[in-house]
Amino acid sequence: MKKIVTYSLLIIALFLTSCSSSKKVASNVKQYNVETMGVGNDGTYLIRVTDYFRSNDESVYLDGLKKDAVHCVIYQGIPAGNGSMKQPALMNADTRVEGNEQALNEFFEQKLYLNFINSVVNSSKKITKMKDSKDYKISVVISVEKEELRKYLIDNNIIKPLDFLF
Predict the structure, then answer these.
(1) Which residues in the chain belong to E strands, given as ranges?
(2) How far apart are the C-alpha atoms of 121 and 1, rounded to whole Å?
(3) CB atoms within 10 A of CB 98
(4) What predicted TM-score, i.e. pTM, was given to this entire model?
(5) Per-residue model confidence as pLDDT tens digits over 114-147
(6) Strand partners of residue 34
(7) Which residues contact 99 (CB under 8 A, 6 or more apart)?
(8) Shortest CA distance to 70 belongs to which of 118, 1, 116, 9?
(9) Following DSSP, what letter does each residue of 8-24 receive, concatenated?
(10) How far apart are CA 42 and CA 143, in angstroms?
(11) Distance (Å, rounded) from C-alpha 82 to C-alpha 61?
């Protein structure tokens, strides 16, 4: 009888832990949100980037949001919105140069992406403390120099130039 009770409690405990909800915590995984605020005539994107951080220290989250903005332009593209059409990612299966992973890692590790941030609209900053968590949901509007970023990626043989299609 003692074994049956022990096994029953064990099964109930396993069931309860497997059904518990998991919270999103700040991590190195790229799980940010991007909203289009506009596309500039001079080859810039104006986007609102939202991500989660453990700290509301401006030097920490601003760097992270800038990295997210450039990461989005390179890998995901910019969604349609606010009168702007969807903008494709700079790197896709057609434009990717094989063996460029090391160059891209260095690009982000050495913080070279900061060279392609045109401006940060400080008045757009929103910081929300997440309920029952140590995380902060932070968003800010950032201007990214898309054409300069494309030129850099082409010059460093990370993506192919657009004329490869012809």
Answers:
(1) 33-39, 44-53, 117-129, 136-145
(2) 67
(3) 5
(4) 0.77
(5) 999 999 998 889 999 998 888 999 999 999 999 9
(6) 49
(7) none
(8) 116
(9) HHHHHHHHHHHHS----
(10) 11
(11) 25
- CB distance 22 to 67 below 8 Å: no
| Maximal C-alpha separation, the chain | 78
Residue type present at position 5? V
- Token readout for 154 is 């082409």
> Which residues are registered as beta bridge partners of 141?
48, 121
Tokens, residue 65: 């949001």
In the block, which residue shows the tokens 């104006």?
46
| Residues whose CB is less than 8 angstroms from the CB of residue 153 and which lie 6 or more positions away in sequence, other chains included | 74, 90, 91, 159
| Residue 128 tokens, joined | 């929300």
Q: How many CA atoms lie within 13 A of 128 on its CB side?
A: 10
pLDDT digits (tens, 9 = 90+) for 55-97: 888 888 999 999 999 999 999 999 998 888 899 999 988 888 8
Other beta carbons within 10 angstroms of residue 78's beta carbon come to 24
The sign one gets for the Cα dihedral 86, 92, 93, 95 is positive
Compute the distance between CA of residue 76 and CA of residue 70 in angstroms, rounded to an integer: 10
Structure tokens given for 126: 């929103």
For residue 26, the SS3 value is coil
